[in-house]
Structure formats: C-alpha cells, structure tokens
Write a structure and sequence with these properties.
Elements (H helix, E strand, L loop, with lengths): L1 H55 L3 H35 L1
Amino acid sequence: MNRARVEEIAAAVGDLLKKQEEVKEEKKSKAILWVFAIIGAIAAAVAIAYAIYCYFTPDYLEDFEDDFDDDFEEDFFDDDEEIEVAKAEKKSEEE
C-alpha cells in the first residue's frame, strides 16, 4: 500500500511540475506579446505624428518653383521682345 501511495504522490508532483513549466512558458509568450504590442503602439503614434506634421507643414519648395517659373517666363519673353526690337533697329540702321 505504501508503494502505491508513493507512486501516486510522485505522479501528482510530476503533474504539478509540468503545469508550472506550462505557466512559465505562457508567461514568457504573454510578455513577448506585450512587448510587440507596445512597440506597435509607439510605431503607430510616430506614424500619426509624422502624417500630421507633413499635413500642416507648408511646402515652400512648391511656392519657390512657381515664383521661379513666373520670373523666368517674364524674363524670357522680355528678352525675346528686346532681341526683336534690337534686330529691327539694326535692320533700319543698315537700310
């Protein structure tokens, strides 16, 4: 009878040890899940902050390019008119 009782206690202790190991593994997996959840939340917050920053920051380069194009076109056409006037003056002087 003692032998059966000892085997029963040993089996119970073995079951408890297995359950403890399972609980430890579960805790590790939960900890890893929490770490990834926190990293994901931080990444989402950073992405939202960057999107808001880009939305509210004016695009100065676009304005500069528009102004540059306007100035260039005005100068370009003024130069053509001046060249045509100069050519006409040369022709009239030659004649």
